[in-house]
Design goal:
Elements (H helix, E strand, L loop, with lengths): L2 E5 L4 H12 L3 E6 L7 H10 L3 E5 L5 H10 L4 E4 L6 H6 L1 H21 L4 E7 L23 H19 L4 E7 L2 E2 L18 H9 L5 E4 L11 E2 L2 E2 H15 L6 E6 L5 E2 H12 L5 E4 L8 E2 L4 H7 L7 H22 L1
Parallel strand pairs: 1-2, 1-4, 2-3, 4-5, 5-6, 6-11, 7-10, 8-13, 9-14
Antiparallel strand pairs: 9-12
Helix pairs in contact: 1-2, 1-8, 3-5, 5-6, 7-11, 9-11
Length: 341
């Protein structure tokens, strides 16, 4: 049974990867500093899977902590999810983003090399692509310069890992570029639970559905069928299964460096998502239109055929599932908070 370390494993994406790995009989270790998550997520993962997780509360910028962990545990592969990820926040806190995302990745790769753990999966993002690229985006699409500090950290880390592999091809490194993960495990015990004001569309819709905020759609004059921006949304459980497929591939032992886009493979406008959410969940979402935000793209969606063919990975959830599961998670969360009050 292989031992997998997930950095940032109590976060939204990391927790679903952990759950999917446990369902597929991997041993899971998590390191997370809980800067944007809660330790109670570990209890939820263990409750759903009926299996144990080894959790370390720590920051990857603490080199001694990392070194001690790898010294004491035999790890077969690392899934590197840890990092700050809010585009708008990165514009106001660039130092924090470079310090957190870059330094943690440097420390991780250094310690992995020291203990000869040379199998790595990196959580990257579609933000690395050039904003002028035509759709759909493929793994061969041009990389941009980065429109914000968050995007630039992803581009830098990808390049760093490519240089590491080129210098030492004992490594196997997979770069997985995400396209807007939404939804949650069908148990509704884990989900997207950001601290503070959400930055992503679905949590904002969730809050509006329960009258916790006023939803603003940024831009209504894009050259799209309804004037709102188009994005590729993928269910987070499908995203997690893509990681399991990647780990199974990387553990085969072949040295390689691969890049895969993980998205549903089609684009939905913001209004389409809102209308689908309303229809599926039988709720009314009140919203208003605002000005476009700086750096927002008109369209972004992928061709996911490379991941499908190379990893034998097939997304199984549609937009209706994503909206239904997201609503269920929010309802469960509010009921739990009410019960604890």
């Amino acid at each position: 049974m292989s031992n997998i370390l997930i950095t940032g494993g109590t976060g939204y994406i990391g927790s679903h990867i952990a759950l999917e790995l446990l369902k597929n009989n991997f041993n899971v270790f998590i390191i997370d500093n809980l800067s944007n998550s809660f330790e109670t997520v570990i209890n939820a993962i263990e409750k759903i899977s009926e299996k144990r997780v080894t959790f370390i509360n720590g920051d990857l910028r603490n080199y001694l902590l990392l070194d001690s962990f790898f010294k004491d545990h035999k790890i077969d592969c690392v899934v590197h999810c840890a990092g700050l990820k809010a585009v708008s926040e990165s514009l106001f806190k660039p130092y924090e983003y470079f310090s957190n995302n870059i330094v943690s990745s440097l420390n991780l790769i250094h310690v992995m090399s020291k203990y000869k753990v040379k199998k790595l999966i990196f959580s990257s993002s579609a933000v690395v692509y050039d904003e002028k690229e035509t759709m759909p985006l493929t793994e061969m699409s041009k990389i941009g310069v980065g429109q914000n500090p968050y995007a630039r950290t992803k581009i830098m880390i990808e390049q760093m890992f490519k240089d590491i592999y080129d210098a030492d091809q004992q490594w196997s490194i997979f770069i997985l570029r995400y396209f807007n993960p939404v939804g949650n495990d069908s148990s509704c015990l884990i989900g997207e639970d950001p601290l503070g004001i959400p930055n992503n569309l679905m949590p904002l819709i969730n809050q509006a559905a329960f009258n916790l905020n006023n939803l603003t759609i940024y831009g209504k004059n894009y050259f799209t069928k309804d004037g709102t921006a188009i994005r590729d949304f993928i269910h987070v459980s499908d995203l997690a299964s893509g990681h399991v497929k990647s780990i199974e591939k990387i553990l085969e032992g072949k040295s390689n460096y691969n890049i895969y886009n993980l998205g549903l493979g089609k684009g939905f406008s913001v209004l389409e998502v809102i209308n689908t959410y309303q229809e599926v969940n039988k709720v009314k979402i009140n919203f208003k239109f605002g000005d476009r935000r700086k750096g927002d793209l008109e369209k972004s969606y992928t061709d996911n055929n490379l991941a499908k063919n190379a990893l034998q990975w097939i997304p199984v959830y549609n937009l209706q599932d994503m909206c239904n599961h997201s609503y269920g998670w929010m309802k469960y969360k509010l009921q739990t908070l009410k019960g604890n009050s």
